[in-house]
Amino acid sequence: MKMIFPEKVKILLLLLTTVMCLTACGGKKDEENESRAVTTKQVVAEVDTIIGVANIEPVGKILPLSVEVSGIVAEIYADANQSVDKGDRIIALDHQVQQMQLEQARSKLGTQQAVITSAQATLASQEVKLANARNTYERDQRLFNGGAETQQTLDDSKTQYEQLRKDVDAARATLVQQQRRLTELQTDLAYNQALLDQRFIKAPARGMVLSVDTKVGESVSSGTSLGDFAPEGGLMAVTEIDELFAPKVKAGQSAFIRPQGGTEILAKGKVFFTSSYLKKKSLFADKAENLEDRRVREVRVRLDSNSRILIGSRVECVIKMK
Protein backbone atom coordinates (compact mmCIF):
# COMPACT_ATOMS: atom_id res chain seq x y z
CA MET A 1 0.00 0.00 0.00
CA LYS A 2 1.38 3.38 -1.11
CA MET A 3 1.66 6.02 1.63
CA ILE A 4 1.16 9.78 1.24
CA PHE A 5 3.38 11.99 3.35
CA PRO A 6 1.89 14.90 5.32
CA GLU A 7 3.54 17.48 3.07
CA LYS A 8 1.93 15.98 0.00
CA VAL A 9 -1.42 15.87 1.77
CA LYS A 10 -1.21 19.60 2.42
CA ILE A 11 -0.42 20.29 -1.24
CA LEU A 12 -3.32 18.17 -2.44
CA LEU A 13 -5.72 19.89 -0.05
CA LEU A 14 -4.54 23.31 -1.26
CA LEU A 15 -5.02 22.39 -4.91
CA LEU A 16 -8.46 20.98 -4.21
CA THR A 17 -9.50 24.14 -2.39
CA THR A 18 -8.29 26.35 -5.28
CA VAL A 19 -10.20 24.33 -7.86
CA MET A 20 -13.38 24.55 -5.81
CA CYS A 21 -13.02 28.33 -5.48
CA LEU A 22 -12.43 28.83 -9.20
CA THR A 23 -15.40 26.66 -10.04
CA ALA A 24 -17.61 28.64 -7.71
CA CYS A 25 -16.40 31.98 -9.14
CA GLY A 26 -16.85 30.77 -12.72
CA GLY A 27 -20.37 29.68 -12.02
CA LYS A 28 -21.16 33.04 -10.49
CA LYS A 29 -19.85 34.89 -13.56
CA ASP A 30 -21.82 32.63 -15.89
CA GLU A 31 -24.95 33.38 -13.91
CA GLU A 32 -24.24 37.12 -14.11
CA ASN A 33 -23.70 36.93 -17.89
CA GLU A 34 -26.90 34.95 -18.36
CA SER A 35 -28.79 37.42 -16.18
CA ARG A 36 -27.37 40.36 -18.16
CA ALA A 37 -28.33 38.72 -21.47
CA VAL A 38 -31.88 38.11 -20.27
CA THR A 39 -32.16 41.72 -19.07
CA THR A 40 -30.91 43.03 -22.45
CA LYS A 41 -33.46 40.92 -24.33
CA GLN A 42 -36.22 42.19 -22.08
CA VAL A 43 -35.19 45.81 -22.67
CA VAL A 44 -35.09 45.34 -26.44
CA ALA A 45 -38.48 43.61 -26.38
CA GLU A 46 -40.06 46.42 -24.38
CA VAL A 47 -38.74 49.24 -26.61
CA ASP A 48 -41.55 50.89 -28.60
CA THR A 49 -39.59 53.79 -30.13
CA ILE A 50 -36.04 54.05 -31.46
CA ILE A 51 -34.26 57.38 -31.72
CA GLY A 52 -31.33 58.09 -34.00
CA VAL A 53 -29.51 61.17 -35.22
CA ALA A 54 -30.50 61.83 -38.84
CA ASN A 55 -29.47 64.02 -41.74
CA ILE A 56 -32.00 65.53 -44.15
CA GLU A 57 -31.36 64.75 -47.81
CA PRO A 58 -33.34 64.65 -51.06
CA VAL A 59 -34.78 61.20 -51.78
CA GLY A 60 -32.72 61.20 -54.98
CA LYS A 61 -29.58 62.20 -53.05
CA ILE A 62 -27.58 65.41 -53.62
CA LEU A 63 -25.86 65.22 -57.02
CA PRO A 64 -22.64 67.10 -57.82
CA LEU A 65 -22.56 69.35 -60.89
CA SER A 66 -19.26 68.25 -62.42
CA VAL A 67 -17.53 69.07 -65.70
CA GLU A 68 -16.18 66.34 -67.98
CA VAL A 69 -13.47 68.49 -69.57
CA SER A 70 -11.23 71.40 -68.66
CA GLY A 71 -12.01 74.93 -69.78
CA ILE A 72 -13.05 78.47 -68.92
CA VAL A 73 -16.51 79.15 -67.48
CA ALA A 74 -18.27 81.17 -70.18
CA GLU A 75 -21.82 81.49 -68.88
CA ILE A 76 -23.99 80.59 -65.88
CA TYR A 77 -27.63 80.00 -66.78
CA ALA A 78 -29.09 79.06 -63.37
CA ASP A 79 -28.32 80.22 -59.84
CA ALA A 80 -28.82 78.70 -56.39
CA ASN A 81 -32.44 77.88 -55.39
CA GLN A 82 -33.55 77.95 -59.03
CA SER A 83 -35.82 75.16 -60.31
CA VAL A 84 -34.89 73.59 -63.64
CA ASP A 85 -36.17 70.87 -65.94
CA LYS A 86 -34.20 67.86 -67.11
CA GLY A 87 -31.67 68.85 -69.76
CA ASP A 88 -31.70 72.57 -68.97
CA ARG A 89 -28.29 74.20 -69.17
CA ILE A 90 -26.84 75.31 -65.85
CA ILE A 91 -23.20 76.18 -66.65
CA ALA A 92 -21.32 76.51 -69.96
CA LEU A 93 -17.59 76.38 -70.66
CA ASP A 94 -16.04 78.16 -73.63
CA HIS A 95 -17.25 76.27 -76.72
CA GLN A 96 -16.65 78.40 -79.83
CA VAL A 97 -14.28 75.87 -81.43
CA GLN A 98 -16.59 72.93 -80.77
CA GLN A 99 -19.55 74.90 -82.14
CA MET A 100 -17.69 75.65 -85.37
CA GLN A 101 -16.65 72.02 -85.76
CA LEU A 102 -20.25 70.97 -85.34
CA GLU A 103 -21.45 73.44 -87.96
CA GLN A 104 -18.76 72.20 -90.35
CA ALA A 105 -19.87 68.60 -89.80
CA ARG A 106 -23.47 69.59 -90.49
CA SER A 107 -22.44 71.33 -93.70
CA LYS A 108 -20.54 68.26 -94.93
CA LEU A 109 -23.54 66.11 -94.09
CA GLY A 110 -25.86 68.37 -96.10
CA THR A 111 -23.50 68.29 -99.08
CA GLN A 112 -23.28 64.50 -98.92
CA GLN A 113 -27.05 64.17 -98.85
CA ALA A 114 -27.17 66.22 -102.06
CA VAL A 115 -24.54 63.93 -103.61
CA ILE A 116 -26.64 60.90 -102.74
CA THR A 117 -29.73 62.47 -104.26
CA SER A 118 -27.77 63.03 -107.49
CA ALA A 119 -26.45 59.45 -107.44
CA GLN A 120 -29.98 58.11 -106.97
CA ALA A 121 -31.19 60.17 -109.98
CA THR A 122 -28.30 58.89 -112.12
CA LEU A 123 -29.08 55.29 -111.19
CA ALA A 124 -32.76 55.74 -111.98
CA SER A 125 -31.89 57.21 -115.41
CA GLN A 126 -29.50 54.38 -116.20
CA GLU A 127 -32.07 51.80 -115.18
CA VAL A 128 -34.61 53.34 -117.61
CA LYS A 129 -32.04 53.24 -120.44
CA LEU A 130 -31.19 49.65 -119.55
CA ALA A 131 -34.83 48.63 -119.72
CA ASN A 132 -35.19 50.21 -123.19
CA ALA A 133 -31.95 48.59 -124.40
CA ARG A 134 -33.12 45.19 -123.18
CA ASN A 135 -36.43 45.60 -125.05
CA THR A 136 -34.58 46.61 -128.23
CA TYR A 137 -32.18 43.67 -127.95
CA GLU A 138 -34.99 41.19 -127.37
CA ARG A 139 -36.95 42.58 -130.34
CA ASP A 140 -33.91 42.40 -132.63
CA GLN A 141 -33.31 38.84 -131.46
CA ARG A 142 -36.83 37.83 -132.50
CA LEU A 143 -36.49 39.60 -135.87
CA PHE A 144 -33.12 37.97 -136.46
CA ASN A 145 -34.55 34.57 -135.67
CA GLY A 146 -37.30 35.25 -138.22
CA GLY A 147 -34.82 36.39 -140.87
CA ALA A 148 -36.04 39.98 -140.76
CA GLU A 149 -32.94 41.52 -139.14
CA THR A 150 -29.22 41.44 -139.84
CA GLN A 151 -26.53 40.03 -137.57
CA GLN A 152 -24.88 43.45 -137.38
CA THR A 153 -28.02 45.09 -136.01
CA LEU A 154 -28.43 42.32 -133.43
CA ASP A 155 -24.80 42.65 -132.36
CA ASP A 156 -25.11 46.44 -131.98
CA SER A 157 -28.23 46.19 -129.81
CA LYS A 158 -26.60 43.48 -127.69
CA THR A 159 -23.49 45.61 -127.19
CA GLN A 160 -25.62 48.59 -126.19
CA TYR A 161 -27.57 46.45 -123.71
CA GLU A 162 -24.43 44.99 -122.11
CA GLN A 163 -22.83 48.42 -121.77
CA LEU A 164 -25.89 49.91 -120.07
CA ARG A 165 -26.04 46.96 -117.69
CA LYS A 166 -22.48 47.71 -116.61
CA ASP A 167 -23.34 51.39 -116.25
CA VAL A 168 -26.25 50.48 -113.94
CA ASP A 169 -23.98 48.28 -111.83
CA ALA A 170 -21.46 51.13 -111.60
CA ALA A 171 -24.19 53.61 -110.62
CA ARG A 172 -25.42 51.25 -107.89
CA ALA A 173 -21.89 50.84 -106.53
CA THR A 174 -21.44 54.61 -106.52
CA LEU A 175 -24.70 55.07 -104.62
CA VAL A 176 -23.66 52.48 -102.00
CA GLN A 177 -20.31 54.21 -101.61
CA GLN A 178 -21.93 57.61 -101.13
CA GLN A 179 -24.39 56.17 -98.60
CA ARG A 180 -21.50 54.73 -96.60
CA ARG A 181 -19.83 58.11 -96.73
CA LEU A 182 -23.07 59.60 -95.38
CA THR A 183 -22.94 57.19 -92.45
CA GLU A 184 -19.37 58.26 -91.69
CA LEU A 185 -20.38 61.93 -91.75
CA GLN A 186 -23.35 61.20 -89.48
CA THR A 187 -20.91 59.59 -87.03
CA ASP A 188 -18.66 62.65 -87.28
CA LEU A 189 -21.64 64.88 -86.60
CA ALA A 190 -22.61 62.85 -83.51
CA TYR A 191 -19.00 62.95 -82.30
CA ASN A 192 -18.78 66.73 -82.67
CA GLN A 193 -22.15 67.09 -80.96
CA ALA A 194 -20.83 65.04 -78.04
CA LEU A 195 -17.74 67.24 -77.82
CA LEU A 196 -19.95 70.30 -77.69
CA ASP A 197 -22.26 68.76 -75.08
CA GLN A 198 -19.25 68.16 -72.82
CA ARG A 199 -18.85 71.92 -72.57
CA PHE A 200 -22.22 72.25 -70.83
CA ILE A 201 -23.42 71.15 -67.40
CA LYS A 202 -27.09 70.23 -67.74
CA ALA A 203 -29.72 69.31 -65.17
CA PRO A 204 -29.73 65.50 -64.81
CA ALA A 205 -33.41 65.59 -63.84
CA ARG A 206 -36.15 67.98 -62.87
CA GLY A 207 -35.20 69.59 -59.58
CA MET A 208 -33.42 72.50 -57.91
CA VAL A 209 -29.92 73.93 -58.13
CA LEU A 210 -28.66 74.05 -54.54
CA SER A 211 -25.41 75.91 -55.18
CA VAL A 212 -23.14 77.19 -57.94
CA ASP A 213 -19.54 77.33 -56.78
CA THR A 214 -17.89 79.09 -59.72
CA LYS A 215 -17.98 82.33 -61.71
CA VAL A 216 -17.63 83.46 -65.31
CA GLY A 217 -14.01 83.53 -66.43
CA GLU A 218 -12.80 80.95 -63.92
CA SER A 219 -10.59 78.13 -65.20
CA VAL A 220 -11.80 74.67 -64.16
CA SER A 221 -10.36 71.18 -64.54
CA SER A 222 -11.96 67.94 -65.62
CA GLY A 223 -13.92 66.28 -62.83
CA THR A 224 -14.24 69.47 -60.78
CA SER A 225 -17.56 69.88 -58.96
CA LEU A 226 -19.03 73.31 -59.64
CA GLY A 227 -22.14 73.01 -57.49
CA ASP A 228 -24.83 70.76 -56.04
CA PHE A 229 -28.20 69.66 -57.41
CA ALA A 230 -31.26 68.18 -55.68
CA PRO A 231 -33.58 66.06 -57.86
CA GLU A 232 -37.31 66.53 -57.44
CA GLY A 233 -39.00 63.84 -55.36
CA GLY A 234 -39.25 64.93 -51.73
CA LEU A 235 -37.01 64.72 -48.69
CA MET A 236 -35.84 61.90 -46.47
CA ALA A 237 -34.16 61.52 -43.10
CA VAL A 238 -31.12 59.22 -43.18
CA THR A 239 -30.22 57.71 -39.82
CA GLU A 240 -28.15 54.85 -38.39
CA ILE A 241 -29.65 52.41 -35.87
CA ASP A 242 -27.48 50.43 -33.44
CA GLU A 243 -27.22 46.72 -34.20
CA LEU A 244 -29.00 45.90 -30.94
CA PHE A 245 -32.26 47.45 -32.21
CA ALA A 246 -31.66 47.09 -35.98
CA PRO A 247 -33.81 43.93 -36.47
CA LYS A 248 -36.85 45.76 -35.06
CA VAL A 249 -36.85 48.41 -37.81
CA LYS A 250 -38.98 47.57 -40.84
CA ALA A 251 -40.25 49.37 -43.92
CA GLY A 252 -43.65 50.98 -43.39
CA GLN A 253 -43.14 51.95 -39.75
CA SER A 254 -44.22 55.47 -38.82
CA ALA A 255 -41.61 58.02 -37.80
CA PHE A 256 -41.16 61.71 -37.16
CA ILE A 257 -38.26 64.10 -36.82
CA ARG A 258 -37.60 66.76 -34.20
CA PRO A 259 -34.75 69.14 -33.33
CA GLN A 260 -31.86 67.56 -31.47
CA GLY A 261 -32.74 67.72 -27.80
CA GLY A 262 -36.17 69.21 -28.57
CA THR A 263 -39.75 67.97 -28.62
CA GLU A 264 -41.30 69.91 -31.52
CA ILE A 265 -42.31 67.64 -34.40
CA LEU A 266 -40.81 69.10 -37.59
CA ALA A 267 -42.14 66.51 -40.02
CA LYS A 268 -43.67 63.06 -40.17
CA GLY A 269 -43.00 60.16 -42.48
CA LYS A 270 -42.53 56.42 -42.93
CA VAL A 271 -39.55 54.10 -43.16
CA PHE A 272 -39.08 53.13 -46.83
CA PHE A 273 -35.57 51.65 -46.82
CA THR A 274 -33.59 49.51 -44.39
CA SER A 275 -30.07 48.38 -45.26
CA SER A 276 -29.61 44.64 -45.69
CA TYR A 277 -26.31 44.63 -43.79
CA LEU A 278 -24.62 46.16 -40.77
CA LYS A 279 -21.68 48.51 -41.20
CA LYS A 280 -19.34 50.63 -39.16
CA LYS A 281 -20.60 53.96 -37.92
CA SER A 282 -19.86 56.49 -40.60
CA LEU A 283 -22.66 58.98 -41.07
CA PHE A 284 -22.31 60.72 -37.73
CA ALA A 285 -18.91 59.67 -36.36
CA ASP A 286 -17.44 62.69 -34.58
CA LYS A 287 -13.85 61.52 -34.86
CA ALA A 288 -12.04 59.51 -37.52
CA GLU A 289 -10.08 57.66 -34.85
CA ASN A 290 -13.23 56.43 -33.15
CA LEU A 291 -12.60 52.74 -32.45
CA GLU A 292 -16.16 51.87 -31.40
CA ASP A 293 -16.80 48.31 -32.56
CA ARG A 294 -20.61 48.52 -32.62
CA ARG A 295 -22.26 48.12 -35.99
CA VAL A 296 -25.21 50.10 -37.33
CA ARG A 297 -27.97 49.71 -39.91
CA GLU A 298 -28.77 52.54 -42.29
CA VAL A 299 -32.44 53.50 -42.29
CA ARG A 300 -34.20 56.03 -44.53
CA VAL A 301 -37.47 57.73 -43.71
CA ARG A 302 -39.45 59.41 -46.50
CA LEU A 303 -40.95 62.61 -45.13
CA ASP A 304 -44.40 63.95 -45.97
CA SER A 305 -44.60 65.96 -49.18
CA ASN A 306 -45.40 69.16 -47.30
CA SER A 307 -42.16 69.01 -45.27
CA ARG A 308 -40.17 72.23 -45.49
CA ILE A 309 -37.13 71.40 -43.39
CA LEU A 310 -33.79 72.52 -44.81
CA ILE A 311 -31.62 70.03 -46.69
CA GLY A 312 -28.56 69.19 -44.63
CA SER A 313 -30.27 69.70 -41.28
CA ARG A 314 -29.20 67.36 -38.47
CA VAL A 315 -32.17 66.22 -36.42
CA GLU A 316 -33.43 63.40 -34.24
CA CYS A 317 -35.42 60.70 -35.99
CA VAL A 318 -37.96 58.84 -33.84
CA ILE A 319 -39.16 55.52 -35.27
CA LYS A 320 -42.28 53.92 -33.77
CA MET A 321 -42.11 50.16 -33.39
CA LYS A 322 -45.86 49.75 -32.95
From TrEMBL:
Alphabetical UniProt keywords: Coiled coil, Signal
Keyword Magnesium: no
Signal sequence, renumbered to the chain: 1-24
Domain Multidrug resistance protein MdtA-like alpha-helical hairpin: 117-181
InterPro entries membership: MdtA-like_HH (IPR058624)
A single MF term (Gene Ontology): efflux transmembrane transporter activity
Keyword field contains Signal: yes
Ranges in coiled-coil conformation: 116-188
Cellular-component GO terms for this entry: efflux pump complex
Superkingdom in the source lineage: Bacteria
Name of this protein: HlyD family efflux transporter periplasmic adaptor subunit
